[in-house]
Design brief:
InterPro entries: Acyl-CoA_Oxase/DH_mid-dom, Acyl-CoA_Oxase/DH_mid-dom_sf, AcylCoA_DH/ox_N, AcylCoA_DH/ox_N_sf, AcylCoA_DH/oxidase_NM_dom_sf, Mycobact_Acyl-CoA_DH. It comes from marine metagenome. Its cofactor is FAD. GO terms for molecular function: flavin adenine dinucleotide binding; oxidoreductase activity, acting on the CH-CH group of donors. There is one protein chain. It contains 9 helices and 8 strands. The protein is an alpha+beta fold and about 350 residues long. It has 3 domains: about 100 residues, Butyryl-Coa Dehydrogenase, subunit A, domain 1 (Orthogonal Bundle), CATH 1.10.540; about 110 residues, Butyryl-CoA Dehydrogenase, subunit A, domain 2 (Beta Barrel), CATH 2.40.110; about 100 residues, no CATH class. A hairpin with a 3-residue loop joins strand 2 and strand 3.
Length: about 350
């Protein structure tokens, strides 16, 4: 406990010295930081914040230091997040690479892949997207048909992915491909890392009714991918896919339990105080107070459950799906309270 208090003091001092003033203000969508080769920073201090956090490894605090991560344990990571929340610091980096891919590279990747990709992910130098769903395989993901043929030193990839978030802005894609067409569908899938700048890769935005969309179709037309980009053994991609989905669902279930003053991480109590006042108006109504109190109690209980599940570890299971469902419902309730 004494060491944890000392760490807390060190974190607080570092943040006071290194977190720029504008980063402690409510985040607006156009100033979100996703990094990448062609990253644009509306707020110059966002780049400064990313560089400083990336250098400390605190964009990925629990990843090993030897690959650029923070090397923190669970308790230290919790302290870091609490201190970031205390000063209302914006996230230094939004990253599918950190949230989903990096843990899988740590578990299934070889040493070359870890040293090649993890430091760039942690510092926000490369932006990743996820290539899972296809026009004919959504809920039945294992029926995917994008194929990767063995061509000696390379795989030749042909096929299409759909609903690929931010594919038009991503530098690399982690994708499920079929390498064993004669194998049972779950056994013939491999997990490939593909540079989006490779000849034959193209994207097409999917227009939504709002006129804006993060989603794209992604096409692979005779794309040559080096075999060194195969994560894990050939035809063992389904195991990695399930593990990655577990990380994705755990991230979604956590979404909103931490964060800045606005957006999905906004604290309902602070929002209520800011817009409704502490004693007058709607906030004085017992029903509103009860609703907010109930929401906070459930949030705290859910946070403790997530922490306990993390401490227990374990293999990919239905638990992560349950967390995703409950986390989504919890955040839905958050927004309903905000507009009540």
């Amino acid at each position: 406990m004494e060491n944890l208090e000392l760490f807390k003091k060190e974190v607080r001092e570092w943040l006071e010295e290194n977190c720029p003033p504008s980063i402690r203000t409510p985040l607006v969508p156009e100033e979100e930081v996703w990094g990448g080769r062609n990253a644009e920073y509306v707020n110059p201090e966002s780049k400064l914040w990313l560089d400083r956090m990336g250098e400390k490894g605190w964009t990925a605090p629990q990843l090993p230091k030897e690959y650029g991560g923070g090397g923190l344990n669970r308790d230290e990571t919790k302290v870091l997040h609490q201190e970031l929340f205390r000063i209302k610091a914006r996230p230094a980096l939004n990253s599918f690479g950190i949230w989903m891919l990096a843990p899988c590279i740590i578990e299934f990747g070889n040493e070359e892949q870890k040293r090649e990709h993890l430091p760039k992910i942690i510092k926000g130098e490369i932006r990743w997207c996820q290539g899972y769903s296809e026009p004919g395989s959504g809920s039945d993901l294992a029926s995917l048909s994008t194929k990767a043929e063995d061509k000696g030193e390379n795989f030749l990839v042909n096929g299409q992915k759909v609903w690929t978030s931010y594919a038009d802005k991503a530098d690399w894609i982690f994708a499920l491909v079929r390498t064993g067409p004669k194998e049972p569908k779950h056994n013939g899938i491999s997990f490939l890392l593909i540079d989006m700048a490779t000849k034959g890769v193209s994207t097409k935005p999917i227009a939504l009714i709002s006129g804006k969309s993060p989603f794209c179709e992604t096409f692979f037309d005779n794309v040559e991918v080096p075999k060194k980009n195969l994560v894990g053994a050939e035809n063992s991609g389904w195991t990695i896919a399930k593990k990655l989905l577990q990380h994705e669902r755990n991230f979604i279930s956590n979404f909103g339990l931490t964060g800045g003053e606005t957006g999905s991480g906004a604290d309902v109590v602070n929002i209520a105080k800011k817009y409704l006042g502490e004693d007058n108006g709607k906030i004085a109504h017992p029903a509103h107070r009860d609703s907010i109190t109930e929401h906070k109690m459930k949030e705290h209980a859910f946070g403790l459950t997530l922490q306990r599940a993390g401490d227990e570890g374990g293999k990919a299971s239905a638990t992560s799906s349950m967390f995703k469902y409950y986390g989504t419902e919890h955040n839905k309730n958050r927004y309903e309270l905000m507009i009540a």
